[in-house]
Design a protein that fits this description.
By secondary structure, this protein is α+β, with helices and mostly antiparallel strands. It is built from 3 helices and 4 strands, in the order H-H-E-H-E-E-E.
């Protein structure tokens, strides 16, 4: 999610991306309401860069586009197992 959004918005936007995942992902049953980790990036450009990294690894994502922000992408969600999560180590947890 993007940390350049207003103070409460990043978590709200992440919640929207999780809802998209639960509604539309073929992997939603695999998650089984387990651990959520909210990671943040600085802005839209970096979010798009990270989305590309997920796509290169063939990791399915659920993207949320905020209608109140001109349909900008604000967050995405993916199911990543612990063994494959090392590429995320440079990201910060949501503050």
């Amino acid at each position: 999610m993007r940390k350049d959004l207003d103070c409460s918005s990043p978590a709200v936007q992440a919640g929207h991306s999780i809802a998209e995942f639960c509604l539309h992902s073929r992997f939603s049953h695999d998650w089984n309401n387990q651990t959520l980790v909210y990671l943040q990036v600085d802005n839209l450009k970096k979010l798009k860069n990270w989305l590309f990294k997920f796509e290169k690894r063939n990791i399915e994502t659920s993207i949320f586009y905020e209608p109140d922000l001109n349909d900008e992408m604000t967050a995405f969600c993916a199911l990543v197992n612990e063994e494959d999560s090392g590429f995320l180590s440079s990201l910060d947890l949501l503050e």
